[in-house]
Amino acid sequence: MRWSKALIPTLKENPADAVAPSHQLLLRAGMVRQLGAGAYSYLPLGLRVLQKATNIVRQEMDAAGALELLMPALQPVDLWKESGRYETFGDLLMQLKTSGGTHVALGPTHEEVITDIVRGLIRSYKQLPVTMYQIQTKFRDEPRPRFGILRTREFLMKDAYSFDANVDQLSTSYDAMYEAYCKIFDRCGIPYVIVEAESGPIGGDSSHEFMVPSSTGEDTIIQCASSGYAANVERAEVGKIDWPAPANPDAPAYVSVSTPYKRTIAEVCKFLKIAESASAKLLVFLADGNPVSVLIRGDHEANEPKLRRAFGAKTLVAADPDSIQKATGVPIGFLGPVGIKIPLMVDQSVAAMPTVVVGGNEVDIHFTGVVPGRDFVLDQVGDLRNAVAGDPCPKSGAPMTVSQGIEIGHVFKLGTKYSKAMGANYLDDKGQEIPIIMGCYGIGVNRIVAAAVEAGHDSNGIIWPLALAPYQVAIVPLQTTNPEVVALTDSIEKCLVEAGLDVIVDDREARPGVKFKDIDLIGIPLRIVIGERGLKEGTLEVKWRTDGAAHNVPVATAAETIRDEVLTKQRAEAAECEQRKIARGVQSS
RNA sequence: CGGGGUGUAGCGCAGCCUGGUAGCGCGCCUGCCUUGGGAGCAGGAGGUCAGCAGUUCGAAUCUGCUCACCCCGACCA
Description:
Blueprint lengths: L20 H8 L3 E5 L2 E4 L1 H20 L3 E2 L5 E3 H7 L1 H5 L4 E4 L5 E4 L4 H11 L8 E10 L14 E11 L2 H21 L5 E4 L10 E7 L5 E5 L6 E3 L22 E4 L6 H8 L7 E8 L2 E8 L6 H7 L5 E3 L2 H8 L15 E4 H4 L4 E4 L5 E6 L10 E2 L18 E15 L1 H6 L2 E3 L5 E3 L1 E8 H11 L1 E2 L2 E2 L10 E5 L5 H16 L4 E3 L6 H11 L3 E5 L1 H5 L2 E6 L6 E4 L3 H31 L1
The protein binds one RNA strand through helix 4 and helix 14.
């Protein structure tokens, strides 16, 4: 490919709207252009990267035995009502009406459609297991698209769905996808951590997210260096915290203080001149419709899935101020555990406090010096909140750390949620009708591209891994009118292309500095410079994007030398992937 | 959906307060010159100043409404 024909509109300056590094660099490198909020065009160069990621995903899905199919983005809303997700998906679902009046939606995901297909096709246990996938555009009416191509209203997703006869089969299918994901991200050359994620009805370790560490990431990861435990904050457990605090028989009785108009934790603590961690807040939820209360330290956040499990409830929602008043007789802002009439659960961090400041269950009143266990009961204590930095690891007890990550993949054991709701059953060997057990597995393909840039860039631009680079090699002929330079350029290009490499020749009539800057910006892994100066000495210059300096190779054998250098690097990366695979095998056994 | 901000040439911005010929840098086109890290000189093209409605002799500038985009938060199967 000739640069002059490639349409690569690089920008010297950062577009004002771009904040995230990947957003800035993909724009500046001429890879994407914004059409509207959360909608991006991929220009030729950007599309090449997206397609390289797509190809790797497809190859590994095929290798894992998944069957590719293609489902429509346009889906009847009735299908969503059938699964029960029309309500839960809410405004995120893009909806429209056909000219005939049919109410349709643009698919944000495809559990409903694939389940509809399968219930018509699969009848017998002999047809199971089967896993199918597609690579297709998804639509979600995100209330706030952001960070360039990281969160958009329209995006390319690889979504796979497994169908199994029993839980053991599901585990096998799940493990195959899990392993395929590791291979995909290894091959893409992007760093990732696998974290436990909040899971559905089956529970246990049935959901994992693949995260690329990045400060731009929207997800919070809790990790323990000593045990290797890693989980999304939505899921992360807090290890055992000792409670109650040693009893102090001399502790004075709690004191009622006037706190007029001080409702929030921040207001109360500021007013009383105490740290938020010295206070506790009583939160009221409706567990399957019944009011329940939870006591959490002032600086902590409640974790609703943990609460739902703790109360053994199917649904758990925060109670609105009216129902709180009705259930407790106390207006929001002054609730406390002392003498509370509804069921109370206490987070272990509160149970461990010697004394605590809480609401007085009366307008404009808070209590100080309240002793857990003395002034309110501690018969229901547990891990009810989001983990924070320094919390003990559930495995090792060592302090855990907090970091940000970009979710690029998610594997999930669904169970029979959709097959039951939509009647996707099979007949077992005894002729019994049984709901098919499902799993779903998603990869945000655009996010692979964005995450690769977030993880690989410097002040000069993008640093693509060889596997994703739009072109692996750029050749820069410095004197485009010198026949010797041109001939050498052509012969090296030919040799590399024949070896299966993607090569771009910067044939522009521009000064060398312009070309070097652009090649660095768009992140081409290997740069070859051919100039009269080097030719006099019989050499040309080769520089890797990741290296600080260039090295010279003799002209006579240049094409083969460079070809072998790139192929060797490719093989080294493949070997690295293999090493990781072996290491994973050792870990899991 | 709440809070904040911004819309002027492809990109980055000034002009607005105090109404009176729409500007600068980069990029783009022509020519000369130059050629190993975003050169220099000369000439040139390109704008319904986001839109609509007011005020005014006259609006990029003042007023009102609308729209779009960005950031923080809420939300995120």
